[in-house]
Amino acid sequence: MEKLVIAGREFGSRLFLGTGKFSSHTLMQQAIEASRTEMVTVAMKRIELENSNDDMLQHILRPDITLLPNTSGVRNAEEAVFAAQMAREAFGTPWLKLEIHPDPRYLLPDSVETLKATERLVKMGFVVLPYCQADPTLCKRLEEAGAAAVMPLGAPIGSNKGLRTRDFLGIIIEQAGVPVVVDAGIGAPSHAAEAMEMGASACLVNTAIAVAGDPVAMAEAFASAVEAGRMAYEAGLGTVAEHFEADASSPLTAFLDEE
Amino acid sequence: MFSDYLKDISWERTTEAIYSKTDADVRRALAAEHCTVDDFMALISPAAAPYLETMARLSRRYTEERFGRTISLFIPLYLTNSCTNSCVYCGFHISNPMKRTILTPEEIENEYRAIKRLGPFENLLLVTGENPALAGVDYIARALDLAKPYFSNLKIEIMPLKAEEYERLTHHGLNGVICFQETYNRARYNVYHPRGMKSRFEWRVDGFDRMGQAGVHSIGLGVLIGLEEWRTDVTMMARHLRYLQKHYWRTKYSVNFPRMRPAENEGFQPNVIMSDRELAQATFAMRIFDHDVDISYSTREPAAIRDHMATLGVTTMSAESKTDPGGYYSHPQALEQFHVSDERTAVEVERALKRLGREPVWKDWDASFDMMAPQHPAQP
C-alpha cells in the first residue's frame, strides 16, 4: 500500500479518528489502538488548555500519532484564527483541522468563512486541513489557498448515511492536487471501503466507531476496510462485464470499413 | 512546470505499458466513471480495437451529454509564413526558398472582411510562423485589435511567449492560445526541430504553464501524428491535459491530433501512419477519458471522416481554411503550410452538418465578457 503523504509527513494508515462521543477515555484509547491510526483529531474545546496533564489528552498522545487539533465550535473565520493560535500554543503543533460550522443543528461547514480562514491560516504557517462541503470548486479554491488536504463530507456529520455526495467526491478526487480525506457521514466499514476504492486518500471516522456496540472491534473493522479499499484502488477494480460485449453489428463505425 | 514532471516519465516505458494493456484493462477503462491516464492507455491500445463500436457509442453519449448536438466552427488566418525555425516537416522551413509574406495591417483587415464573406465566422484563429523580430507580440496585438470589430472570439497559434506577454495580449482581446508540442518524445524532438527557438523543448512544453499562469481562458494542446509512435504521443498529451487541468482549473482545454499525410510536401515523409480506424479510436478514447475537452479536427482530415466524426466525439472544426498568408484575399496563390483535404466551402460544411443533425455554432462567446471578467489570480 502506497504511503499517504500530507505536508511532507508520511502516514502508514489511511484511517483518521475523531475522539468525540466515546463513553469513556479508556474505551477511546483502546479504539485508537485497534484502529492502527496515525492521525487523531481532537476538539480543542474539549481540552483543558491550561492543564498539560489533561485526562483526555493523556489517552491520545503517542509518539506514532499526529495530533490534529480541530476548531469545532467556532462560527466564523475570525474565531477560527483565534482558536488556531491557541491550539498551536497549547499543543505545540501547526497542524489544524479547520471546522467552521455556525449552524448548531447539522454542523454544516460554512464555505465562505472556511475559505477565508484557510487563506489567513496558511499565511500564518499552519498546516490546514479544512472540513468542507463536497464542492469541487471550493476544494480547488482551498487548494489554491494552500490547504494541505481537503476534507469533504460524505453526508451530514454523525448521520452514518455513507457517501451521499458520491458524484461530487468523484469529481473532487479526480481534480485534486492535494490529498482528499472523506470526512463525516461514514457510518459503516463498507462506506469507508467505497470511498477508498474511489481513490480517496484517507477517511476520517468518529461516530460510527464511538457509538458502535463494540467500539474497539469496530475500529479494527474500519482499519481493515480502509486498507482493503485502498488496496483495491491500487490494484485496479474489475468491471461489470455485461455492458461491453462485442457488438455483432457496427452501425456507428461501419464507415471506417468503406474504401 | 510540466517539464519537471516529464523528467520522471519514460517514453519507452509508456510505450511498453500501452502495448501490454489487456482486454480486462480495456473493459475496466470503458466502465470507469473517471478515467485515469492508465485507462486512456488501455483505450488507445491495440487491445481496445475490438471495442471500437462500443467506444463510438460511449463517445457519442458523453459528447451529447456535455456539448449537445453542436459543432463549433472556426477559421484560421495565417498572418505570415516568415519563420526562423527549421522544422523538417513544415512548408515554412527557414531554408525553403520561398517568397515570405508578412501581412500589413491593411491586408489583415482585407482578410477579415473576406472571411466574413465566406460565412458568419466569429471564432478566429490567428496563425504565424515564428519570427519574433518581424511578427512579434506587438504585431499580434495589432492584429487582435484589428480583429475585434469583426470577431467575438480570438485565438492565436504562434510561438510560445512569456507569461507577461500572454497576459498583455489578453488585454487586446485574446481568448485562447493553441500550441502544438508536435511530439513529446524528448530524445527525438530535435531530430524534427534542429534549429531556431522551436528547438528548445522545455521552453515550448512549459509554455502551457505560462498560458495558465497568465489566465488565458482557453488552451489548446496538439501533437502532430506522423513523427513518433502516435499512441505514446497522445498518451503524453493526455497526461499534459490532466496536469494542466489540476493546476489551471479555470481554463478550458482543447486537443488536436492532426495526421500528416504521405506526400503532403515534397521532402519529409511521415514515419508513422495512423489509419482511419486508429484516428477514430484515438478520438473516442479522448472523449471517454475526458467528457469535457474540446476535440478539434482541422481541414487536414477529409470531408467524409470529418462528417462522421462530427456525430461521434469531435466538437470543433475549421472550415474553408487557407493555410497560406493572405490566402482569403491578398495573396491567393502563396505557398501553403500544409495541404487541406477537406476543400468544401464553409457553407457546404454547414449544410453537411445540418444534414447530420448537428447544429453548426458560429458564435459562442461575446467580447463584452472580456471586459467584465475579473483578472484571475495567478495560479501556482
Helix content of chain B: 40-55%
Number of E-state strands of chain A: 10
| CATH-defined topology of chain B | TIM Barrel
**Termini gap of chain B:** 9 Å
- As residue ranges, the low-confidence spans of chain A are none
For the record, what is the CATH homologous superfamily label of chain A? Answer: Aldolase class I
The chain pair forming the largest interface, with residue counts per chain, is: A-B, 27 and 31 residues
Q: How are the strands of the largest sheet of chain B arranged?
A: 1-2-3-4-5-6-7-8
Q: How many E-type strands of chain B?
A: 9
Quote the average pLDDT of chain A.
89
Number of domains of chain B: 1
Quaternary structure annotation? heterodimer
- Low-confidence runs of chain B: none
Number of helices of chain B: 16
Q: Give me the CATH architecture of chain B, please.
A: Alpha-Beta Barrel
Radius of gyration of chain B: 20 Å
| Biggest sheet descriptor of chain B | 8 strands, parallel, barrel
Encode the helix/strand succession of chain A as letters.
EEEHEHEHEHEHEHEHEHH
Strand order of the largest sheet of chain A: 5-4-3-10-9
Number of helices of chain A: 9
Strand coverage percent of chain B: 5-15%
What does this structure look like?
The complex is a heterodimer of chains A (259) and B (380). Chain A is globular. Chain A has nine helices and ten strands. In chain A, strand 9 (181-183), helix 7 and strand 10 (202-205) form a beta-alpha-beta unit. Chain A is α/β, with parallel strands linked by helices and 259 residues long. With 380 residues, chain B is an alpha/beta fold. The longest helix of chain B has 18 residues, at 230-247. Classes of the chains: A alpha/beta (259), B alpha/beta (380). The A-B interface holds A 140, 144, 170-171, 173-177, 199, 236-241, 243-244, 246-247, 249-253, 255-256 and B 24-25, 27-28, 30-34, 38, 50-54, 56-57, 60, 245-247, 249, 276-277, 280, 304, 308, 312, 377, 379-380.
